[in-house]
Amino acid sequence: MQEAADRINEEGATRGDATAADASLLGKWEKWPLTDRRPSQAVLDLMAEVYGCEAEQLLDIEDRRAMPRPEAPALRQTVRVRETPDLFHTPDEPAPTLAAEVRQAAEESVAWAAWAETSTIGDIALEQIQSDVRRLAKDYLGGDAVEIFTRTRRLRDTTFRLLEGHTSPRQASDLYVAAGYLCALLAWMSSDLGHLDDAEAHGRTAWLCGKKAEHQGLLAWTASTRSKVAFWDGRLRDAVQHARRGAMYAAGGTVGALLACQEADAWSKFGAVEETQEALRRAQAARDQSTGDDEIGGLFSCSTGRQEQYAASSHLRIAAYGEALDEAESALTHLQAQPVRAYGTEAQTSISRAMGYVGVGQPDAVMEVLLPVLQLRPEQRYGTVIGRMRDLTAQMTQAPGARGAASVQARAALLDWCQDSAPRRLALSPGAGTS
């Protein structure tokens, strides 16, 4: 939104029309007449230039009704739908002839066709939305969760409004895809922030968008998102079912590997050793057979390091500690070599590594391994990271020497660290919400 406001300011400066727009003001212009900030004709012209459309296309029926009559832009094409002919016309008004009726019907068809060729969004603006979706998915890996959530929500609202307007079938399909990925992002973020019910609601809407667009990739990534939400909500059978449903779509890219990893994650929570190992083998096969790049990337991509972290986590639950430790160490090497550091995934991997050391009888290594995690700011401590840390402390209570002073002190420090987290700060902030 701020990028669009900046472009409007630049265009205004070029034309000599100073606007001083920011994201907040642009949002109020777009929501008028629900707000008190009505865009002038000059502002409409600037917005149209930036969005790649005509000024008239920015206004719906309610906008036109609310705009003062002298300033209301004239429609380029107006479809005048004739009222039903009055069969009881007065004698001094001649009844329309059949030829006039045919001509009128033709003119109406031509006028409607002209209207149908117009759109509330231009191709350039649509490309910008798609670019913004990819940027948000990338930024979330290493950015501030609450700030990126707000940006994602605003772009989703803009996309929803455009879908309520007049678009061509191709544009509508592209907008449904964008809206679906945005809702999937909101679902993933809401889950990380501890709002699992809200996350599930976003996931259902993302699935609907995928069905509307008949988009294989969106459906697969939405299934992955819903599997993740179900896992952290304790609905393990749902997690398996979502992962398997997503694998039915020919999506390309790395989603197949992630879906199999998520299935393994759920099976390992059940303690099902054979199912876990089989799912991990399918994850590797999916990576070996993957074709093409991920459409969105960022959060919606399964890097080698991310896959290895899932494998390590799954092996820990079935007590394959040596394998888990090797996978966690390899995952950290891959994750730290990435151009965009995913601190949430890195944190979970470090915790898995610490759990591996506890499992192989080396609990003294735990606190050293966890140093990068303990340095995370509270707003970076997602619900998933907190959940993994609590799993570690529970494991430490069962390890040899658990009653020793060093172990007791370490567990107390880790549990105290868990108290200040992103979900807790969001819950305490005034007016916070994740809808």
Structure report:
With 435 residues, the chain is an all-alpha fold. It has 21 helices and no strands. Helix 10 (216-232) packs antiparallel against helix 11, helix 15 (321-336) packs antiparallel against helix 16 and helix 19 runs antiparallel to helix 20. The longest helix has 24 residues, at 169-192. The protein is elongated and about 100 Å long. 42% of the residues are buried.
Characteristics:
single chain; about 425 residues; mainly alpha
Brief summary of the model shown:
By secondary structure, the chain is mostly helical. The chain contains 21 helices and no strands. It has helices at residues 2-15, 23-31, 41-51, 61-66, 98-116, 123-142, 145-164, 169-192, 196-213, 216-232, 236-246, 255-270, 273-289, 304-317, 321-336, 343-359, 366-369, 371-374, 383-398, 405-419, 422-428.
